[in-house]
Amino acid sequence: MKLYLNATSPFARLARIVAIEKGLAARTELCWVNPWQDDARLLAIAPLARVPVLITDDGAALTESLLIARYLDDTGVGASLVPEHDRARTLALAGLGHGLMEAAFQTVIARKHDGTAADTGHLGQRRRRAIRRGLEALRQWHRDDAAIDALPRLGDLVSAVALEYLAFRLPEMVAAGQPPARWRTLAARESFTATAFPTG
Asked: For residue 175, what pLDDT is reported?
């Protein structure tokens, strides 16, 4: 398989983390691209020019991080990241974490093009409120810390990536929101250390 990605996308990082957690790292070639420069290699397989994109063994081009995660979960080894007995809650948490990730990502992109003024408009304020509410919802979510560390589920992984992306790109929002520490325990896992956001 081939995974098209860049180093700062939280969505691409999630796909890579799931590949590692499911024992698929050796089977997955990493193809580094720049989606902001209309990379021809990316456009050839993904007309929307977004990462991640997973090319499966049979040549299908999968897009959108949660869909890729589900495919990798089904393809890899070990326990499912979406256990049958708690599927709905696991997917609900994954959706919450993904929404938080999306709000943070859109805030970063808006600032890149419009500066800090992007935060003051209607959409900017709406994104900031969404981030604050998302952090509060994660704080209230019941999930045993030991269970997360021993056998993380898809919702745990998505939430942890979202929190790390906030710390990476919007640290002032993390400080204001006091994010829950329980998902931070995942940062020590190989899948997270091997895919850490760049520093400097």
From this structure: 73
This prediction's pTM? 0.94
Q: In this structure, what are the phi and psi dihedrals at residue 29, rounded to the nearest 5 degrees?
A: -80, 130
Q: Is residue 154 within 8 Å of residue 69, measured between CB atoms? A: yes
- Phi first, then psi: give them for residue 34, nearest 5 degrees: -115, 100
Question: Closest Cα to residue 13, out of 149, 146, 127, 104?
Answer: 104
Kindly report, residue by residue over 39-69, the tens digit of the pLDDT. 999 999 999 999 999 999 999 999 999 999 9
The Cα 66–Cα 3 span in angstroms is: 14
Strand pairing class (29-32; 2-5): parallel
Which amino acid type is present at position 125? Q
Looking at the predicted structure, is the pLDDT value of residue 159 above 90? yes
- The sheet carrying 29-32 orders its strands as 29-32, 2-5, 53-55, 61-63
Residue carrying the six token digits 């325990």: 185
In 3D space, the residue among 156, 190, 165, 163 whose CA is nearest the CA of residue 177 turns out to be 163
Rounded CA-CA distance 176/142 in Å is 21
* Cβ atoms of 88 and 37 closer than 8 Å: no
Closest listed residue to residue 160, CA positions, set 127, 189, 130: 189
